[in-house]
Queue: 2 jobs
Job 1
Amino acid sequence: MLFQANRHANKSANNWRLFFQALTLSTFAALFSTHALSQEIKLVSAGAGVTELVLALDAADELVAVDSTSYLPEHLASIAKLGYHRMLSAEGIMALSPTLVVGSEVMGPETTLNVLKQAKIEVVKLPSSADEKQLMTNIDTLAQLLKRTDQAIQLKQDLHQRLEGLHKQQQQLSQQQAQPKILFMLLQEGRGARVGGKGTAADTIIALSGAKNIADFEGYKSLSQEGILSLQPDVILLSTRSEQSDAQTDEQTAQALLKEMPLLAHTPAGKNGYIQTLAPQALLGGLGISAIGAAETLAATLLKQNQ
């Protein structure tokens, strides 16, 4: 009887030990799962349009670095700046110990991205947005990665409303007898000005505004003052390849351009002072927040011009 009692006691003790072991293991598993879910995101954003979306999703606190094309407000000036998004350094990125690298479809080179992947860093490329559908898809993808799905809902609503507003302005401009003629010029230090034709980012912005890109060729082409004068643009848009936003006002930029190319003073744009600047980031990554803003500014100018 005593032997049976001891055996029963031992069995009961073993059962309790197994129970506590299972409880301990399940507790550790739950804690590990919670830690994994709440793991800190350390993001490198490589591309002006991508960084704009990160900021718009209220995810600036996840950023550890951005590429040189990205614009950051002054209060985020402490965030590291990497090189050009097409020529990233694996060593420079890995030194920051990121968990995630997100960039445009031209982010590279591939050798750098492969090194990052081998180091178990998640690398994601977002396609260039040619239309609203792709832009919204990119926002959803980024929001999932950054756990900002609620912010994505509001951002998509806001951008959709802005695009709808542009569509209405397009209809207003289309009712005019002559569609406004726009010329885009890219200014680069050490080179002559180049005019942006079809298929360029500037062409997308001009079309969004409801105007006509007067340059009917593909891509970029150098034109003389005489060539630009013959086109008689109603509005001239200017941008640079600078990585920093130009601190000059539109008026100062117009004066500088007319001083350098005095014949342009005889165009409708020059006579009426309709010479505007485009932020460099509006020309990168396809349809994005800056491109929409640039189109809104241009559309407002055109409607004012025709009042």
Job 2
Amino acid sequence: MPRTVHEDGHGGFAGLLTQAARRSGIAGYPGDGAQRWPAVHARDAAVLFRLALETAPGGTAWHAVADEGDRVIDIATVVGRRLGLPVASVPDETFGPFGPIFAMDQPSSSAHTRQTLGWEPTHPSLLEDLEALQP
């Protein structure tokens, strides 16, 4: 599972970034914001779990990644716009113990999963889903 499993604008690292924005009044991102985070909609992940249980050989591993790497600055920009907050780079410490992880580039691929199991995500991407955030 990627570190952001989302639904209705909530969940995972993106949810923590949103909570930090609400607390601090700034939709912040670490560093230059170019680092990428993979994500998956919770319902797409559920479909993959079903496919894996029904069709995959025992002991195999699969990547539930729909969005292979949204830039953190793009995530923060949507959060800031939806919450009416400024968007800016902030120190890694803003995110507490998750700061060093948030600052990492984490692209991931589900090409093998899609090809082998025929999994195709159909629910909103992370950036689309964040449009559900309410101030």
